[in-house]
Each structure stands twice: as structure tokens, then as C-alpha cells.
Design brief:
Blueprint: E1 3-6, E2 9-12, H1 21-28, E3 47-50, E4 53-56, E5 69-71, H2 73-76, H3 80-92, H4 101-112, H5 120-126, H6 138-151
Helix pairs in contact: 3-6
Length: 152
């Protein structure tokens, strides 16, 4: 049977290769940090890393991750960069209900891993695939800017 790595553990791919990766993560594996919201790839709540690149797991058929490495927020929280992102989000007041936070964290990581300094417009563009209904985005942008200042 075909497999993929989910948070460092080998997982057998279900027979139905068209099932959404999101469903395999949440239903089959019980990892609920990856959120389900729009089901159309518009909100970013279901963002995961596939081979260290961000994807909306609601749009990915599980057959597309055979032989790949998938990382959810549960595993990402073990990384040192997560701790830095978390600290900046808290410091900037960028977390309210928390529903969008896992996707925002993943998108922030994708932006920061380039190692480049990004303008506010770049930050807004990088996070534009993530919807937040609580914070108004300004505090989230501030958190990312705090992280960039830390690297200078």
C-alpha cells in the first residue's frame, strides 16, 4: 500500500485517492489543529506544509501526497521558529478566537523562511490567503513585522 509521512509518522494512503487530505488529517488521524472552514481553499484555515511548502489541505487529494512529507500545526509547534512566531503573535495581540491562527502561523513561516526582509505590502500579500474574522489583520501584520525586526 502507498504511504506518506504525516508529522514524521508513516501513514497508509486510503484506497480512495480522491479523498481530501484535510479529511485524512482530521477524521482518520484525529489531528484537529488543521481547521475546516470554507472547503474551497479561500480561507487558509486548513493550511499544512507538504515537503515544507504551504498548501490548503482541503484542495489536495490524498493521492497527491504519496511519498511526501505532510506537517500539521501539531508537529510544527515543536519547531523553534514556531515558538518565535507564537511569541510575536502574543506580543502583538494577534490572537483572539484562534480559529485562523494555525493557518496564519503556517503562512507566516512560509514568508519568513525566505530569509528576506519584506515590506508591509509583501506581508499583506503573503497572508492574503488567510481569513480572520476577529483581529482586523493589523495586529497579525504587526506580529510578522516584529519577527522581521528580530532578524535584523
Amino acid at each position: 500500500m502507498e504511504k506518506f509521512k504525516l508529522n514524521t509518522q508513516e501513514v497508509e494512503v486510503p484506497k480512495d485517492l480522491t479523498r481530501r487530505l484535510l479529511d485524512v488529517i482530521r477524521v482518520d488521524q484525529g489531528l484537529t489543529g488543521t481547521k475546516e472552514s470554507c472547503q474551497e481553499g479561500e480561507c487558509g484555515a486548513c493550511m499544512v506544509l507538504i515537503d515544507d511548502e504551504i498548501y490548503n489541505s482541503c484542495l489536495v487529494p490524498v493521492g497527491n501526497v504519496i511519498g511526501k512529507s505532510v506537517e500539521t500545526i501539531e508537529q510544527f509547534k515543536e519547531r523553534e521558529i514556531y515558538k518565535r512566531i507564537e511569541e510575536a503573535f502574543v506580543k502583538a495581540g494577534a490572537v483572539q478566537c484562534g480559529f485562523c491562527t494555525p493557518g496564519m502561523v503556517m503562512a507566516t513561516y512560509a514568508l519568513l523562511k525566505t530569509g528576506e526582509k519584506h515590506s508591509l505590502e509583501d506581508v499583506k500579500l503573503a497572508l492574503s490567503g488567510n481569513l480572520c474574522r476577529c483581529t482586523g489583520y493589523q495586529t497579525i501584520f504587526k506580529a510578522v513585522q516584529l519577527l522581521q525586526e528580530e532578524v535584523e
